[in-house]
Amino acid sequence: MISVEEALSIIRDHRPSFPTERVGLQHVLGRVLAQDIVSPFDLPLFDNSAMDGFAVGSPEGPWEIVGEVSAGETVSKVIQPFQAVRIFTGAPVPSRTYGIIAQEEASVQENFLMGEVRKGSHIRLQAEESTVGHLIAQKEAILTPPHLAAFASCGIETVEVHGLPNVTIISTGNEVVPPGQPLQFGQIFNSNATALASILALKGICAKVMHARDSQEELGSHIHESLQRSDLLITTGGISVGAHDLVRSAMEEAGFQVKFHGVAVKPGKPIAFGVREDGKAWFGLPGNPLSTWVGYLVFVSTWLGGELPLESRLVATKLERKPGRVEFLPAKRMPNGEVTIRNVVGSHANFGLLESDGLVRINPDTSILAQGDQIEFLPFPWGPYP
């Protein structure tokens, strides 16, 4: 059994390299940028109105209303002193405009405008958000909705992103039944496949999901089929030392060299990792749901190119534990910077993550965490959401 740090080092040594690809904005959420993105022009492109109202040509009125400017107009207008034009939000501001009077602050009598105006009021100035050449996003950024909106505002339709692996998830076990199917006594519904497929989807990876019963023949057939299309295989269950734990031998028969099997981590000690000569990789995750979550968030995510974004936090309440292994437990960030560690009934439990937004990492030699002690916190990649 090796340490978490040793396991992560081995995984980093076997990270894949996939060609970059140019992809449309609607398909790159969660992807990793492979280029710097800079603004191709000033934003805003031109002075424009922040309000519906009147653009005026001098600091004092009354001003004669001589026309109007709507959003989308392509002809530049000029305004003279003691003149005003009706203007709408987003419309180009006429040259020589002194300021804009908001509609609710204006008084119009016949064809003349009265009111008060400050110089430059309610004008969005050209380049006040960014100038041409401004760095919008750096290479290696994980793309978020604000990134995509910023790119679109610059007229960018596609971006270069790192390629993604093809992934197959193979859940195992005679006791595992797909949700929606009849459940017999002694059986459980398959939550691990849904957990893994959904978190991979956050990275833009659409994983193929399969299930194998505790049969060497069936498992071998699924592995063979998966290798025809997949760069990464993730199995859940069947990786311990019981009579029905067939996964390791099946993977070795399929050409995987096991780099480690067993890590000093809780939960998830039986985790395995292997690679083939062609670069295809395999993670064998334990079948208990919390072990599967930890296996992905700590180990699989590292193979996919991430580094653990650990934060330093303070413990909100005292915790006693048995030392010996690195332990990851669900936790909730508090507004004051502390974290509350959630009680979980065991690694078979799924619900411990529902009211959590990350995992705390407890060092192997720690037996007592006192209130106020520092602890490392690993945020979940999907939230929190209100």
Characterise the protein shown here.
A hairpin with a 5-residue loop joins strand 20 and strand 21. The protein has helices at 4-13, 145-153, 192-201, 216-227, 247-253, 289-303; strands at residues 21-24, 37-38, 48-49, 53-56, 63-69, 83-87, 99-102, 107-109, 112-114, 123-124, 135-137, 158-161, 167-172, 176-177, 188-189, 208-212, 232-236, 257-261, 265-266, 272-275, 281-285, 311-315, 319-320, 326-333, 338-341, 358-362, 368-369, 374-379. The chain folds into four domains: 4-18 and 164-303, Molybdenum Cofactor Biosythetic Enzyme, Chain A (3-Layer(aba) Sandwich), CATH 3.40.980.10; 21-42 and 129-161, Molybdopterin biosynthesis moea protein, domain 2 (Alpha-Beta Complex); 48-124, Beta Complex (Molybdopterin biosynthesis moeA protein, domain 3), CATH 2.170.190; 311-379, MoeA, C-terminal, domain IV (Beta-clip, Beta Barrel), CATH 2.40.340. The model has no long low-confidence stretch (mean pLDDT 91). By secondary structure, the chain is of the alpha/beta class. The strands form eight sheets. Strands 7-4-6-5-9-8 form a six-stranded mixed beta sheet, with no helix packed on it. Strands 16-13-17-21-20-18 form a six-stranded mixed beta sheet, with helices on both faces. Strands 22-25-24-26-28 form a five-stranded mixed barrel. Helices cover 16% and strands 29% of the residues. The chain starts with a helix and ends in a 7-residue tail after the last strand.
Question: What does the secondary structure layout of this molecule look like, with pairings?
Answer:
Layout: H1 4-13, E1 21-24, E2 37-38, E3 48-49, E4 53-56, E5 63-69, E6 83-87, E7 99-102, E8 107-109, E9 112-114, E10 123-124, E11 135-137, H2 145-153, E12 158-161, E13 167-172, E14 176-177, E15 188-189, H3 192-201, E16 208-212, H4 216-227, E17 232-236, H5 247-253, E18 257-261, E19 265-266, E20 272-275, E21 281-285, H6 289-303, E22 311-315, E23 319-320, E24 326-333, E25 338-341, E26 358-362, E27 368-369, E28 374-379
Helix pairs in contact: 1-6, 4-5
